[in-house]
Amino acid sequence: MADGQWSSHAKRWVTGLALAVPLVLLLAYGPLWLWTVVVTAAALVGLWEYETMIQRPALTRWELVFSLAVGAVFPLAAWIHGVAGLGVSAVAAVFATWAKQLAHPPLNRDALQRALISLSGWLYVAMPTSFVLLLGALPHGREWVFFVLFVIVFGDVGAYYTGKTMGRRKLYEAVSPKKTVEGALGGLMASAVMGTAFGITFLRDTGASVPALLMVSILTELVAQAGDLMESLLKRMAGCKDSSALLPGHGGLLDRLDSLLFAFPTVWMYAQGLN
After folding, report:
1. Which of 37, 129, 167, 254 could bridge 180 with an S-S bond, Cβ 3.0-4.6 Å?
2. CA 150 to chain centre
3. Are 170 and 182 in contact (CB under 8 A)?
């Protein structure tokens, strides 16, 4: 491995570990209100990256502040009122979009397109991120959140090293040139095995069967890979390599959240059905 490649790889591991230690402590021992603070902060950073990546250079300070203010409502509503609060937040975001346009002309097609970009950002970043709180509030919620992270982390590791050693066929070269079919399959296998093992060890009291845990592990990794590709598509269309330079070796926070955005709602849908 070249020195530059090793340096980048080392940065990824160092940054990942620096984030992982406080995150694990928070998820294991932190109260749900503290989760809400961290989730809200993550949603706001993700929204900031999304807005600046897609709407630059036309994005005004007022538009950014408005986008972040509405985005902050989603995790707060999820913490206070659960899934009902999250649903009402989505409706309120649509109303806020049109109220903003009425209050701040001009009323033209460009303004409409930019308003819809902000609306999609709330539904793409703030709303899915808030499902961490819905999942954490369930019985055995902490274990389910760790399950998601376990599946995603081992999926990423499996995909990376399988792709490096065995990758031949491009998965979707126009969107993400480095991803391979072999890497995707390696990640899927790693997630299936490790997710099921985690579930057998920590989630048997929930009533989840081994076949169900295997199915959920596979499905979680599939939607995680879809989320990864979707963010790569957004960056490709916006002409950006990374969503920001916030995290050394990783790019932006949204580059780390992309796999989780669809994974948490997927696991929540299954886990809440067990209760």
Report:
1. 167
2. 14
3. no
